[in-house]
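Form 12-C: Joint structure prediction
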Amino acid sequence: MSTAVKEKSIYADAFREFAASREGEPAWVGRLREGAFGYFEELGFPTTDEEDWKYTNVAPLVRKAFPPAALGRDEVEVVGVETFVSAEAGRSRLVFVNGVYSPEHSSREALPPEVTVEELGAALAGEHGEVLWNHLGRLSGERGNAFEALNAAFLGGGALLRVPKGVVVEAPVQLLFLTAPGETEAATFPRVLVVAERDSRLDLIETHASTADAEYLTDAVVEVFVGEGARVTHYKVQDEAGSAYHVAATRAEVSKDGTYDLTTVTLGARLSRHEIEVVLTSPGAACHVDGLYLVGDGQHADTHSLIEHREPDCASRQTYKGILDGKSRAVFNGRVYVHEGARGTDAQQSNKNLLLSTDARVDTKPQLEIYNDDVKCAHGATVGQLEEEELFYLLSRGLHPDLARNLLTYGFAEEIVEKIRFGSIRAQLDEAILNRLHARLEA
Amino acid sequence: MLEIRDLHATVDGKEILRGINLTISKGEIHAIMGPNGSGKSTLAKILAGHPAYEVTKGEVLFEGRNLFELAPDERAREGVFLAFQYPVEVPGVSNAQFLRLAYNEKRKHLGEEELDPLEFKDLLAERAKVVEMDASLMSRSVNEGFSGGEKKRNEILQMAVLEPKLAVLDETDSGLDIDALRIVSEGVNKLRTPENAVVLVTHYQRLLNYIVPDHVHVLYKGRIVRTGGKELALELEEKGYDWIKEAAAGA
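Section 2 - Result
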């Protein structure tokens, strides 16, 4: 109990200092900040006593009390930013280093002028105030957890993406949140707001990575508004440092005939937690929520997702796959909630896990909550090892046992990988999978 | 090429093979027939090294070497091939990728250069003609969503790519319609050379109309109870297996 109080006071001092440094922002932002911090103090960090956090203990990161990087005085030189940039987004990207926007590494060249891809700090002060005022915190605010409240309290680094009615953005927009560890172990609070207006199209690549191993915290919140008939395809690649903590929330609202496709790739961090919420608010709305987590020795990856069918004739598909090695742990909690009036709902959900080690552990809980009869819903979860018959088949064709095992593991992941549209992400994943398997062979 | 001596084997503690003796020379085709449960498929799987079966007695020499000292993948690289009765689906691994990996494993074993995907594509296109295999099946996951006939053809395609010394075909004819049976059989005939040998494990005689065996063996209760030429298969077709069972019971 005393620990919790102490941590709060550390963040309280940091918050006062941070808020004071944000003079010149519109008054409503200050109020949002204050409100969020008050909410955070009220909630406190979650503990394993709470059902939603039963399997994920954040005490180690709470004890660390990472100070906001924005208050730091570290001057860090960053090299090799280009290696983290997706080739397809070379001229349509915003880069943030330690939570701070880096104009020299960013480019908007490939983006049409009518599209807003703006650093959040500038957007808050500028002409986009109204869009922000209308949307920021609407999905994450009251429904959010303590980490989301903390993110809002330290709001500053991040991006506003707004695609006006009918505009198709050809180049994918990459938001690269890069940590370049300095002397201080710090926290960053990336915040993204996506507003895709009616009949628009946007591809988003959200990348979290680090130039070197270090202990730090990324506390990210992404809110996505998909307008009528609009389509947003969102790839999230979490490749944080092996000693890092990554806690994130992605919340989306999809209007009539809109489509939101999210694919998450979880490779890094000692402890990661991703909370996903997609609300299908009007008839014809649809979403795909897919993911692959690849965790090795000492890693813990938790995905909590909620897909809400509020109105009739919406469709959702969810496929999550996990490959676990060494002493690792994964948590998948996937709820699909079908409201009373949501007739003609079509929902499918699956979570499959491959355990390469006897020390690995998965807690998977797919849940369907259906409050009407006229629905087509299916869900399922599996946890297992490589299939003996498949292995023997490959061996009987002359493949060495290591190669056969790797090929089957690769094949398991492929169902997710092959659906990824961007070659650079596929290549990154292939490499990560092969590296992971290679490391395993050498161990 | 292959010498099986007094082979006994069990699965889950139950004895399935009770003393098999069989010699196969290069250039020969042997058919192993018998009623259901006689041990035909067990024999085929043991030769390939399936982990579910335990050899309790006897030995098998392949080109003079003790086959049981070789792991399943080593046997394959040495030239033993099993066409599965139920080919396994391997999701996420493309047929072409799988075939190339298997082919290159053999090349490496022989000390030859591996083929890159482009070079292999040409070779694969040529070998695919042997079983009239559609090119669209090459980019699909191994056997996934293949029809029964396509799966069996895919087995023979693998045989065409790997060019084994000894090919054991486990009920390759089961589940095939007459056209597929003809294509598969012609494929096997095309792959015959004076240097290799084929073992056909089958319940029915009809496959043997297309692939003509030099020797026919009848397996019953884990033993070879009768051996003859191709006319033995016709006799079985005509009279069924009951007389074999009776003869075995009387003996």
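Section 3 - Comments
The first strand of chain A starts at residue 93 and ends at 97. Residues 376 and 398 of chain A are 44 Å apart (CA to CA).
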